[in-house]
Design goal:
The protein is α/β, with parallel strands linked by helices. The protein is built from three helices and seven strands, in the order H-E-E-E-H-E-H-E-E-E.
């Protein structure tokens, strides 16, 4: 008797549904990725307090801006309050903050870090305005006024509560 062999036919894959999915999904993912990248602000969390005594020197500025409803409190974390900028009727006085931060940058040109601490009810717009004033400003170089970095490495956190 002659052996019988089964004839196998090649299976055809139906991939048109998968190709349709890819055709729709790829442009959607590419378009949303562009908009997500434009709205990112790189921030870091403040360093955890180690509890060790830090010696305050002229080179050891730890700039801290506390955003409160009635004023902006600019200070050194270890040295105390530098200046309290009272808010205007329209909101915080970010122009005065910008001028003060520029003065601090001329005294401490190598420092890049700052911390912005906000109360829980602070609006997002106010927080962004304060961060922009701390991050960059206009400084005079010779007879030109150029945009320059002030304290670009910003950490954010919660403002300390006041004790009555």
């Amino acid at each position: 008797m002659k052996p019988r062999r089964l004839r196998k036919t090649a299976a055809h894959l139906e991939i048109t549904a998968f190709i349709n999915l890819i055709v729709v999904l790829v442009p959607f993912l590419l378009s949303t990725a562009v908009f997500t990248r434009l709205s990112v602000i790189d921030l870091t969390l403040p360093a955890q307090n180690t509890g060790a005594l830090e010696h305050v020197t002229a080179d050891n500025l730890q700039l801290e801006v506390v955003v409160r409803a009635e004023a902006l409190e600019v200070g050194d974390r270890t040295g105390g309050l530098i200046e309290r900028i009272v808010a205007t009727p329209t909101g915080p006085d970010v122009r005065a903050l910008g001028r003060l931060v520029q003065q601090l940058k001329t005294r401490f040109p190598d420092k890049l870090d700052a911390t912005v601490l906000a109360e829980p009810n602070t609006s997002y717009d106010t927080l962004v305005q304060v961060m922009d004033a701390v991050r960059a400003g206009h400084m005079a170089q010779g007879d030109k006024v150029v945009r320059s970095e002030l304290f670009p490495n910003i950490s954010i956190g919660d403002a300390p509560t006041r004790t009555p």
